[in-house]
Amino acid sequence: MSGRSAGRRQEEYVHMLGVSPAHILGRPAEPVYGEEATRLVAGRRVLVTGAGGSIGGEIVRQLSRLGVGELFFVDNDEYALYSLQRELSGTALLDDSHFVLADVADEAKLNRVFAWARPSIVYHAAAHKHLPLLENSPEAAVRTNVLGTAVVLQASIAHGVERFINISTDKAARPTSVLGMSKRLAEMVVADRAGSANPGTTVASVRFGNVLGSRGSFVETLSWQLATGRPVTLTHPAASRYFMTIPEAAGLVIEASVLAQAGETYVLDMGEPVRILDLIQRFAALSGAPEPRIVVTGLRPGEKLHEELFDPSEAQRPTAHPRIREVDVAENGAASWPAIRSLCARAATAHPDEVRRAMAELLAGADLAVLAS
C-alpha cells in the first residue's frame, strides 16, 4: 500500500467507530461564551498562528461564529492551510493573502505580515507538540516553541497588537521533557516581555492538558488500532492525564483572553485526571469494538506517569471565570532576548543531550535529576 493510500485509510478508520471525544469524557463539549468574550473579538482583526492545527483551527471556527471582523491564518504547513480554506470557503485555491505560509521563527517575514495585517488580537497556537519526537530533536522545540513565541510576541508589540495570547500545555508545569521545558520557556518569554510591551498591549499564556481528538493524538491512534483489530499500546497501566475536547479548549482560550493583563499564565479547569486505561476501555465499549488486547510499552523518556497542571512553586489564584485559574510564572532573565538567542545558537549545532542540558540550565525550578537522565 502506498504512503498516500495508507494515510487515507487511517483517516477513514478514525471516523469509522463513530465515538466523539465528548462521549468519551461524558460531559458537554460546546463552549459557552460570556458577553465580554463576544465583545472582545466582534468586528476585530485577529491573527492566529498554527491556524491549520487542531487548536488553532478550532479557535478560527469559534471566532468566525463570534463575528470577528477579519481573520489572518498563519501556518508553515501547506496542506493545513489548504484544508482550512476549503472548510471555511468551500474553495482551496490558496490565492487569498489572508492565508500565510510562514515559519513563526522567521522574524523578517513575521514583521512583514504584521505590518500588512495590522491585527488587534493574536492567538499564538503554532507549536511542535509530540513529546518523543522533540526528545530526539530538541533543536526543533527551541526554534519553534521558544524562539517562535518570542518572535511572534515581539512582532505583536512592535506593531501595536492590543492582546497577545500564547497557547501553552500542562507539560510546562514542573517540566520533565523537552516539550515541557520549551513550553515553560515560552511562558517565561511572555512574562518577560510583559514589562516591555506597549501600554496598550496585554499579554498572557493559557495552559491546558491533553486535547482529545487533536491531530496525531492518542484518540486518533486508538481509533485506528481498534478499527483494524490491532493491539492497543499503553505506556503504563496507571498513567493518567487531564483531558478536554477541542471545542472546550478553544472556547476557554477565548474566554481567558478577556482576562489577559501582564504576562500571567491562565490554567484551564480540566476536571479530574483520567486513567488512560479507563479511557481505552470506555472508548471500546462505546464503539462496540471487542475488548482490546493491551500491550504495555513503558513510559518514554521525559514522560510523566501523572501530568500536573501547576508547578509546586506556583501560587494559584481564582479569576472572574469559574473554570480558569491564574498563576505568575517566575522570570529570572532566562527568557530575555540574549538568553533565547544564545540557546538557539547552541541548539543549532549541539548534540541533543547538550541542548536538553542547556534548556534545563535556564529553568532553575525544573526537575534537574529527571532532565539530566
From TrEMBL:
Family under the similarity heading: Belongs to the polysaccharide synthase family.
UniProt-listed InterPro entries: NAD(P)-bd_dom_sf, Polysac_CapD-like, Polysaccharide_Synthase-Rel
Entry's transmembrane regions: none
SUPFAM superfamilies (UniProt xref): NAD(P)-binding Rossmann-fold domains
Domain Polysaccharide biosynthesis protein CapD-like as annotated: residue spans: 46-326
PANTHER family: POLYSACCHARIDE BIOSYNTHESIS PROTEIN EPSC-RELATED, UDP-N-ACETYLGLUCOSAMINE 4,6-DEHYDRATASE
Name of this protein: FlaA1/EpsC-like NDP-sugar epimerase
The organism's place on the tree of life at top rank: Bacteria
Pfam families the record matches: Polysacc_synt_2
